[in-house]
Amino acid sequence: DKAIYPLIKIPKMAGVMSINDPESIPDPHMKYKLMFDFAQAATSDVKKKEINGAFVEAARIINLHIAAGVPKKNLEIVLVGHAGGLFSLINNEAYQKKFKIDNPNIPMINELLEAGVTLIVCGQSMNFLDIEKESLLPGIKLAYSAKTTFSTYGMKGFQLLDIF
After folding, report:
1. Measured between alpha carbons, how far is 76 from 80 in angstroms, rounded to an integer?
2. Which DSSP string corresponds to 123-138?
């Protein structure tokens, strides 16, 4: 009940707690370039009905930075999905065809995109999993591979964080 949601409002687990007088905080003048690697699959009966935990963790990390005083303009966030994590990024029609239910990730994806987060998918995984580019949600970018995306963004100064 005490959680705050300074930027990303959903889901509930993306909330953070206020901390009074911390001795260590992020520098609000620095530019934070964070890249999240996720492959968490939505394949079990339970997981396919829930928001992908990787998105929740990314939202929480974003909210932690904002709550600690980093202005949104100083955050540049990239989420790179591969393997089974790609099923969370497909449109409702494709999700229904695969899992027989609506994609619960769509509101979360839309909120991340509206917050300026870049979402990129691995073209190699798309190929292996037989996911067509047309099945991706609007705003999702297709990369040649996740691995080349990591190296490219790493060379641009992004810190790679694994989230599971």
Report:
1. 13
2. HHHHHHTT--GGGBPT
Note the Cα 2 to chain centre separation in Å.
Answer: 24
Which regions of the chain does DSSP assign to beta strands (E)?
Answer: 32-38, 75-81, 118-122, 141-143, 159-162
Question: What is the rounded end-to-end Cα distance, in angstroms, of the chain?
Answer: 25
Q: Which helix (H) or strand (E) holds 93?
A: helix 92-99
Rounded Cα distance between 144 and 135, Å, is 17
What tens-digit pLDDT sequence spans the chain (164 residues)? Answer: 699 999 999 888 899 999 999 999 999 999 999 999 999 886 667 778 889 999 999 999 999 999 999 999 999 999 999 999 999 999 999 999 999 999 999 999 999 999 999 999 999 999 999 999 999 999 999 999 999 999 999 999 999 987 76
